[in-house]
Amino acid sequence: MVNYNNILAQVVSQVRPEDGSTKSMYDDMFANAGILDRKQYNTFVREMEINSVILADAAFKRMERESEVTSGTRIEGRVLQDGRLKESRTTKKDLTEAKIGFGQAELNAKKLKAKTSILDDDLDDNIEGQQFESTLQSMMGAAMGEDLAAIAVFGDTDLDYDEEPLFHTFDGWAKQATTTLKSSELASTNAEKAFNVHEDTVEALFDALIAAVPARIRQSHLMNKFNIYVPYEVEDAYRNLLKARNTALGDSMQTGNAPLKYKRFNIKYAPELDAEDCKALDDTATCLGGFPDLMRWGVYKDISMEMERIAGDEQTNFWYRMKCDAGLEVFSSLNVAKLTLDELAEIQDEAKI
């Protein structure tokens, strides 16, 4: 039977840069309550972003406190004025001050936990040597990132805790956004109908998300960073639509994997919008149009990974704990578009040739 303690001490040993000797992360974890150091923290966060398009694009904040406010500033409106008085044409001293707009995203870190375990028998024939600890952190980091991305988009504290304990954790970007657009089949009144993907193709959805951007934001340089995030069916429907055109662009949609653009804006497939449990929250499909620089997410500095040896079961448990939150710097900077699941399934076929 494998001596797990000795193996673990060996595979996670690290070389001390000052004298070339080794130290065991196994011992350090007990001394530091499993808290990852700065380098491990940064690596873990990068792993969290690997499988999430939106988290990778959005603005990340390493939180030094459990509650922090991130902010950005911009000048609102016009600032230049006539420099002389109308009557005398003398120099004008009383000028209207330019207004500085402050956007703020308040992040209040909420605790999230995870656990995995490894049996000794599984380690007997599958020991990766010194890569074991980094491999485990990489796998768990990526998996936790997928879950965090789902909460960051779909989190809603109004959900029933017993039914949705994960998504109940904190309010995500979709909940915080001030504009939610509905498709023709989802809307209950004509006034609510923002787009019709059957009559006007999936491009009507993109147009609706673009048109809903407030004028003061649309007129700024921020529009160069406007992205539209969609589930797979929407991306595929748009590729089918482009493929149907008898042009070089249509050929590239058939045989290549070129980035998608619509009216100069990026169309990005986001796996978190494809998740079945996310769609099941309200039985709709969700698309987002917004600015990654204004979509904030943060993780408190103390991410921990602790090991628990269960000798009687010949098993070792790994416990993970972190605190995080997501927020919008400007609530009106993100627009949400909703379709029925039937529409989502039908738009792919409608654009095929």
Average pLDDT over all residues: 82
Low-confidence stretches: 1-18, 20-26
Share of helical residues = 25-40%
- Note the beta-strand portion: 25-35%
Order of helices and strands: HEEHHHEEEEHHHEEHHHEHHEEHEEEEEH
In total, the number of strands is: 16
Protein structure class: alpha/beta
Strand order of the largest sheet: 8-7-16-12-9-11-10
* CA-based shape: globular
Total count of helical runs of at least 4 residues: 14
**Main beta sheet: strand number and arrangement?**
7 strands, mixed
Rounded to the nearest angstrom, the radius of gyration is: 25 Å
> What is the CA–CA distance across the termini?
61 Å
What does this 3D model show about the protein?
- By secondary structure, the protein is α/β, with parallel strands linked by helices.
- The protein has helices at residues 4-11, 25-31, 38-50, 53-57, 120-124, 132-154, 173-176, 197-200, 203-211, 215-218, 232-243, 248-255, 276-279, 341-350; strands at residues 13-15, 22-24, 59-63, 67-76, 99-108, 110-119, 179-183, 193-195, 227-230, 260-262, 265-269, 284-290, 295-300, 304-310, 315-328, 335-340.
- It starts with a helix and ends with a helix.
List its traits.
five-stranded mixed beta sheet, disordered N terminus, single chain, seven-stranded mixed beta sheet, 16 strands, 29% strand, 33% helix, 14 helices, 353 residues, alpha/beta
